[in-house]
Amino acid sequence: MKIARFLAALLLVAAAGCATPSGSPGNEAEARRESTLENGFYPRAEQKTAQAKAPVQEAPRTESSPSGGPSESWLWKQTSFSKMGVLNAILWYIPNRLSDLMDIITVEIGAGEIGLDLQLTRYLTFGAGIGQSYMLGWSINNQFGIYQQKGWYFDCFRYRASSIRRDPTFGDYSSIFTSDKSGLVDVSAMFDGNVEDPFALGVKACCYLNLKVQVHPLELADFIGGLLFIDCPHDDNPKINWTFNLL
């Protein structure tokens, strides 16, 4: 009996030795694989699978021009094509060039005011005037027709003291109301207002019969650029084109 028990114990030991221990190479490899997956480092086989499953990032989309070309550049946005479309820019080419040409010069005649004003840009303006007058003519930014103006003003360099009101009676002149007691003229606001040109060169002489003449250098540049469909002021627009407001 003792010998039989001894032999059975030997068989159990031999069977246990044949089994794979917990620290065997197979279990260690599995542990390393799980560790690398947790830390984001993939074995080659796992890396290929992860790359296949990873979402594909789309390339950023670029805005295309109306003509279907490449992304819009700053220069494209300054053209008539970007605002009107290619076909309209071509069809309205001649009317827009006529409008730009008329914008180069302001000519107004009227009656009823006394004064004299010399403007070499808004930074060098000298003059004064008082009274009520009616003026007929055309000016920048597609303004034309007849307007009534009344009040007084005094200009010296960039300073102005004034109380002026202008109301259109016919056409497409813009209304103006200023009441400034000896202060600096805001050139930027005047330019953005698109009613008066702070960079104009001109003269206004009034002795019951009035004459105002101005030249607008920036509008001359706009006319030259318009020959090549460049429209930085964005005034190539049939809705505001004075040549067709008369129709």
Plain-language structure description:
This protein is α+β, with helices and mostly antiparallel strands. Among the domains are: 77-99 and 222-245, no CATH class; 105-215, no CATH class. The chain is 36% helix and 34% strand. It has a six-stranded antiparallel β-sheet. A hairpin with a 3-residue loop joins β2 and β3 (143-157). α7 (93-103) runs antiparallel to α9 (217-226). The model is unreliable at 18-25, 35-52 and 62-71 (pLDDT under 50).
N-end to C-end Cα span? 130 Å
Number of helical runs? 10
Largest beta sheet: strand ordering: 5-4-3-2-1-6
Mean pLDDT: 75
Helix content: 25-40%
Record field, number of beta strands? 6
Biggest beta sheet attributes: 6 strands, antiparallel
Uncertain regions spanning at least 5 consecutive residues: 18-25, 35-52, 62-71
Element-level helix/strand string: HHHHHHHEEEEEHEHH
Structural class determined from secondary elements: alpha+beta
The coarse overall form would be: elongated
Report strand %.
25-35%
Q: Please, what is the oligomeric state?
A: single chain
Q: In angstroms, what is the radius of gyration?
A: 41 Å
Brief summary of the model shown:
With 247 residues, the chain is α+β, with helices and mostly antiparallel strands. The protein contains ten helices and six strands, in the order H-H-H-H-H-H-H-E-E-E-E-E-H-E-H-H.
Question: Notable features of this structure?
Answer:
single chain; 247 residues; alpha+beta; 6 strands
